[in-house]
Amino acid sequence: MVIELVPLPLPKSADPSRFVDFGREVKGLDPGNLSPGDFAQVEDALYKYSALLFRNVSLSPEQQYALTKAFDPQCENYGHGNNKTESNKKSILHPDLKTIPRVPQVQLIGNGVVYNHEGLAEAKLKHPSHHTFHKTQVSNEDEAKGVTRFYRWHIDAALYGLSPPRVTTLYGIAVPKGPMQTCRYDDDTGDQLPVPLGTTVFVSGRTMFDILPPEFKSLAVRAKVKYAPHPYVWMAPARAMPTGLGIECEGLELPLSELPYWEEAKQKILPVVWKNPVTGNLHFQVHPCGVIELLVNPLPAGAKREGALYADGAHITDLKEVRDLLYKMQRPAIAPSLVYPHDWHENDLVIFHNRGVLHSVVGAFKPNQVRAFHQCNLAASDDPAGPTEGDVKKWT
Ligand SMILES: [Fe+2]
């Protein structure tokens, strides 16, 4: 049986010509009980369309874990490798504990207090807010009017020691309703985007690559990023830009000597551009906040040097130069017309290609607005493939 795929409804802000191959609703399938034949089609569709939506789903944590693992049967651990249940067995009431005890690869995320949930007597959840992460903040007055920001554009990945998960599954169990909010970029462009309350926003890494001018395409296919050791500890004291697309250069990162024990061998060095295993398309996949260095290969023999950036290759260790370059390459792709804000309904399941999109939490909830989601992603059994020699030739 051929599965039924329907394009996702796009908001008025989106440019439909940029979403032809992005996002599909899968109709008439129970994602918790897929036959091998149906799964093969879902998997194929995921790599082709980057995000799949199933509506009105009933999915246990066990089923969600099994579904997520089916995309990478050899992987085992949660994407960040933290099996909190094992280390906190005696304190399942701990406010920060969000792991489903029976299925530690599935996390409970959201906002407000959730009671008697899948073995958790009480879980206090907090929707991440730009107030705790950005250098500048939306004023209380504007926030009361519904103004908000992207929290942090990212790939779901530990970026240290573990490989970036292939897919993330997000299952909306309790979804508070409220008026639309305005996501403001606050970066002097005047850009803003109307968003449903508590949306998850996605941009295509393929589009991020496709819209680059030739000199940046040439750089992207030759470049690798090196992530900081324990990047989330390293970046913790630093503050993000108002677009949530990277960190302000203020020298606030934790010095490497003050990080928990780390080994250089575990630092991730990943291509800037990742090759889609089904379509062969190139996706610009960089988690800008965690990057510490950029490594650029020289142009291949025979390539035109005119106008080329870093024609002889480079190892860029100046953090400002690294971040400025990445921002120039990534910012165009988060323009309002290129963002898909998902309008969550209860019992929606979204599977997204974590190696093909960037995403962000958006919005702000009041403490009494209870939002409960199950999230699962698994550190992959391999690192993503970069561009082939042919790709590099084509774009340099
Ligand atoms: Fe995420």
From TrEMBL:
SUPFAM superfamilies found in the cross-reference section: Clavaminate synthase-like (SSF51197)
Domain TauD/TfdA-like: 22-376
Pfam families named among the record's database cross-references: TauD (PF02668)
Cofactor(s) this protein requires: Fe(2+)
InterPro entries for the chain: TauD-like_sf, TauD/TfdA-like, TfdA_dioxygenase
Claim: Oxidoreductase is one of the keywords in the record: yes
Alphabetized GO MF terms: dioxygenase activity; metal ion binding
Key words of the record: Dioxygenase, Iron, Metal-binding, Oxidoreductase
Protein family according to the UniProt entry: Belongs to the TfdA dioxygenase family.
Protein name as it appears in the record: Clavaminate synthase-like protein
Organism: Fistulina hepatica ATCC 64428
